[in-house]
């Protein structure tokens, strides 16, 4: 044989091999798997049971771990007991415990038993669903679950597969923004018949998540063409449609091309909600792609009393929302819906020979690899599917409401203490507040920095800060899954104690 | 109060709330978690125990699932038993079983008990490690594990944190390529003092993974400036340094700017290895960023007998390798090493107020958010850490060798049957072969297509195809974790049966 120029000695017998080696190492023996995975379940359940006892913010110094861990991987295997021991001694003390009920920083990352089970299943199957054929259930369940969630949010049909659009699970908002931005970029370049990206301009507010600027730069938008419209405390830090229109008008007058508008439902600093309806008018008038980042606030819209924050959503091109932020789903899980999936596919499709198959070529199936940055993808929908089924819409709504109720409680406590003020109106489960706003002759910012440091250094609560409109404020975000009202009250008492402390020391 | 213009009625009592609601729904009760997670462990262990009994390639039609699942999420919770039942009835039959020992398609995705435990732990902690402070152990363990793996691969110190470089875990190769490409792009634009990307050119071979073209387009490289250098069967489908130099020279003569070269160690179609040393000369002479995609082949370099494929690696700028492909790590896990992390940071850094902290500002810590597309990131290193410790370098080497030995066995079987030929030399654990190369008057391609369809439709083995150098060939990739020699032999017998069948029918 060897018509293509190679020659082999076909008659040589296959060399004998060392079968001992082969038989000894079985990295996935089902019974060993069962035994060890049960041990890990107990380890994690125990961790959850005692999580309250750990300092929530890690109290270690940079480089702490390198001094405790060998410089090289072991040559021979180590038993699981040794590893568990090291996790307890070296890893847990260096962690910030995001699942602690005393975690009120950033936005908490919410979790649940159902999501954990879904993630186990996703990992366990290890199905790679880059196209339909590579594992049909991976693609089909994701399409169904994305339609389910769209319906829970009362999104119009144009965002569902039952309509003419569709949803996809990205890892994070960053990717959702990046892929839609690239689709918008390529469409705009085609429309204006150029390959020069230098005139394309994108718009956001000074409250938009920093990942928008990052994604814009990644997509080749020049930093000078990223318009961050200034917001004000008077307007609740919302993106002002009038200011936006003015900025767009100026850009157009200078020969620039408006490309993409990113609005936010629940900004990171203060959970401001940009008004979608009037922003959509501007986007339409100038032919911009309009994306809504509802990473945090969007989840609340499964409750009728919050749904009005999505008014106008039928007029946007794409919408993203991260169930890991408020729908109990563990990281990473970002849901992206688009009206015109074909625009993602136009920009992101690849079609190498080794992935070709009749179904993909006939356009009768969805190949999710063409909706995302990468090629390979996990069975991501299982996690969300298990959450939605195990809890039902009813419990998820009650979970959102419970967090909001606790935040209201905290807000009420802040307002009851004349040394404090709530700085911006609370919309969801985040309270932005500060100590001692009015006292003359003292630096409010410095006092609040001291207070924050004092509180966090106790390990009994973890809060973060922000500065908006020039005002330094503390953020108290309720949402960690294990948080109960007693934790909120204890945190408030701790803050009060801290206030006594820092006010005494000035 | 209210110095910022808001007024509240501080005297109003906090409204009484419905505490029943709050107490009923506990999505992370540790004991309920324990109970259900144990059930899931058994479900997955049982799946592994009987995985051989499932057809490896799903035998369902597009849309199969939508007819079996309700159109909306349930309002009330459903019990876990119902969900397990649905998984058995509706999900498993629609899956392609990537972990089946009869899976020989694409590159298998390798797994292990240790990696599963690591992933459980990563999920369980749900630590979000966007910067050092957000969970120090997340960042520090990743730095250490990346140095461990670098040492196992005998990478020079310039790629480690112990030296002046460093590694980071990305989700997939696509992201590793994208972030390095963007760092290279921004550096090149600065060097040539322009903001016009239209003259930047990137280089690869016609065997480079399709994600490179996709990433290039995402980063704003014009499709006409993506040079895919033609390879040939005579040169083993390697990227030819002479042809590359010629292409670069022509581009430079036309005023274009060479930006980025992507070489591959173990191409997707045939596992060709591009020669790093002479390619590095070209990259150096023209000031290009040189990246090596060793997604599949790189893992083999932990064995001394394969390490020579990395000769010249000390001269590249970045290198990526996916342990989910051959180091038993489940999806997703792509390790990226760079010589100059500061170039990633320059392009990808964000610094919003709410993430500011003293340590990040003092530059004394690594903030991995500035090394990747997104902001949030999971405790990704736990999976790899558990694999390396639980098995040791010894067993991982033996695992690589065992797969190679089985592929050699298959190669030997192919060569023993005069109806078949091995099309390209086998380097790792992939055998590219075809049926009936020489018979006059018959379409070899059509015969092999029929053979592939016949084999896959049995559900007893799953292979895929490729076309390189105009030759249609079948790919037999050994590597699924549960595959033993008996599966390889059974697959070969099935292929022989298929050959009888299709040869009879022509």
TrEMBL record, chains A, B:
Region (Disordered): 1-25
Pfam families the UniProt entry points to: Pyridoxal_deC (PF00282)
Domain of life: Eukaryota
PROSITE patterns referenced in this protein's UniProt entry, alphabetically: DDC_GAD_HDC_YDC (PS00392)
GO cellular component, as recorded: cytoplasm
Record keywords: Decarboxylase, Lyase, Pyridoxal phosphate
Gene Ontology biological-process annotations: amino acid metabolic process; carboxylic acid metabolic process
Gene Ontology terms, MF aspect: carboxy-lyase activity; pyridoxal phosphate binding
UniProt signal peptide: none
Cofactor(s) this protein requires: pyridoxal 5'-phosphate
Chain positions with N6-(pyridoxal phosphate)lysine modification: 325
Annotated Gene3D superfamilies: Aspartate Aminotransferase, domain 1, dopa decarboxylase, N-terminal domain, Type I PLP-dependent aspartate aminotransferase-like (Major domain)
UniProt record similarity statement: Belongs to the group II decarboxylase family.
Official protein name in the record: Aromatic-L-amino-acid decarboxylase
